[in-house]
Amino acid sequence: MDLRRSIPRTDVVLADPALAEAIARLGRPAVKAAVGQAQAAARRGEIAPGEVVAAAVRELPRGLRPVLNATGVLLHTNLGRAPLSAAARAALQTAAGTCDVELDLATGGRGRRGADAVAALREAVPAAGGALAVNNGAAALALTAATLAAGREIVVSRGELVEIGDGFRIPELLEAAGARLREVGTTNRTHLHDYAAAVGEDTGFVLKVHPSNFTVSGFTHSVPVAELAGLGVPLVVDIGSGLLAPHPLLPDEPDAATTLTAGATLVTASGDKLLGGPQAGLVLGAAETVERIRRHPLARAMRVDKLTLAALEATLRGPATPTRAALDADVAELRRRAEALAAEVAGEAVPSRARVGGGGAPDVVLESWAVALPERLAAALRLGEPAVLGRVERGRCLLDLRAVDPADDPALVAAVRAAVA
Questions:
Q1: What gap in Å lies between CA 31 and CA 29, rounded to an integer?
Q2: Fewest CB atoms within 10 Å of the CB: 71, 110, 220, 242?
Q3: What pLDDT digit, counting tens, does each position of 171-186 carry?
């Protein structure tokens, strides 16, 4: 008997409950295409006719998958950096429909786009007379350069010409915005007189860049913001990680409020790092200067959508973000959780060392606790439901709990048990 005759018809396969749910989520054409691929595999003898439904499910587009971050890196770039707060996720639901993103409901006329998010930023950083959100941190700096220094010079220390993620470099970014760089000082030491000697009529602004993802130690010197602010030209400080106010665990991480109070004209930063919000680039500072940047033609190309604006406002005005909760986690409570989880999965509770990540606070080590499992489970955990990403260290798979929401502990236990089975 030719087994191909027993391959189920398309309509029969599409009626299966597993695929009916997928049709509601993905649409009939996408699911039908997956069924066709599974039936073709059965005709080639690669799978049995009875496996067509399961094969079709495997062929379905998956999209982004949720992952439990048990790496010990709070802001893991490959996992999308900051997880959004419950308030921000709820705001996304509202913004996903029609909403008053550019409408003044009181008058029925056009309103200022993102006015609520801008107001929330100014509330969070009172030293900022103006605020603007664009699509990422690099865009914030590039738009600032295009507005204030196109065809002019940006004075910057050689030790701050850094490379950021995926090979992008600050010098190339600024030059692409139409500015010329005037490099001063050396890799390890730059003094105030180096900047002063370079500042002239062609200076668009002085730029200070926080290295973010590395440190230079030893025989070093850099110039504080307060001293650079006295050079008589605009001072732009890229603080990188988006910390808006000082945090006791991060004494060396620059924050927007302190930097502006010290005399910076503008601060640029990211929204999806220590701020704990969506991907965004922030420009904070002198109101007139921010308004010039907002009106630049390139600002239209870099503007954020309604989803980002909604999530940003909710992040700023809502309760503590998951990032802040992870940063402030009590070590004794992390140990208690690790011991309880280890007892449920036949693992071992061990001390661990977590990091901020996301290009922030590279020298800061956060004491933590983890569940230690056999190294061989790392791959199975990554492929499970939900996916769990730990870190492999000294022949063990460590599930660090600092960035894991306590509410996800039962899901973590279930994932480990499924990986062991």
A1: 6
A2: 110
A3: 999 999 999 999 999 9
